[in-house]
Design a protein that fits this description.
The chain contains 10 helices and 2 strands. It comes from Citrus sinensis (Sweet orange).
Amino acid sequence: MTILIDQPHFGVEVQEKKVPIDEKELSLDGGFLVPQTNSFGHTFRDYDAEGERQEGVENFYRINHINQTYDFVKKMREEYGKLNRVEMSIWECCELLNDVVDESDPDLDEPQIEHLLQTAEAIRKDYPDEDWLHLTGLIHDLGKVLNLPSFGGLPQWAVVGDTFPVGCAFDESIVHHKYFKENPDYSNPAFNTEYGVYSEGCGLDNVMMSWGHDDYMYLVAKENKTTLPSAALFIIRYHSFYALHKSEAYKHLMNEEDVENLKWLETFSKYDLYSKSKVRIDVEKVKPYYLSLIEKTAKLANEYDDELVFERSS
């Protein structure tokens, strides 16, 4: 799968109130209201709250933390970095996510296409002129197709969940940190120090992140020389990196560009997290806008022997 962005400035007109944006002071100054609780009546990202999803979510992170090693991530990046995929549109890819429910998410049990539209629509309402951010909201989770059989059927622990660097110590702010003790890298002196295989200020682009939909979609965009701004790529790769943008861990690895892009991610994260709701988006109502945006800005495509096939790289 590849992504090609034809225009660096999208310029799609929408009839909504304009909200000025200061890149130095990004904030929620539009009409989006942050809810007090999630759809299950708990506070957001409460991994200890008793409920029907608590046990399953914790078991997900146990398996995830045991298996996400430096060598595993390196192998997956090499395999999926080949981007040997099929021609398809962004909207077709979105619709594939009707069959994916994120097992790691304590706040939502709806199909992922609902989450994409909830995020994009909340952003669109507050920032109508930032078309690149609307598109980022729509595509940020498209990498979750890796969970589908036609894309290789990777287990959910290798597709979803909070992400974190591998190749250095696992920060204690990472959800369910205790399960890292069973990860081989936890006791490996090459990987279990503050810097591990990295150096101060090396830049997050040079850091190996745990493998999943975030890193895959980042590779899709980057390797095909997308013209989405660097802030969009930063959002796509690190939107699940809560240890960074919620707990401020791993900042010693960031460079100056990371510092600037983090401001955009912190704004995006509020919509990504708090727009999750049982209130469904009227897909047919918003679809024309996103199809128009997609037509003007992007094409998800790849040719594989001139056939329309879904096949994992080999």
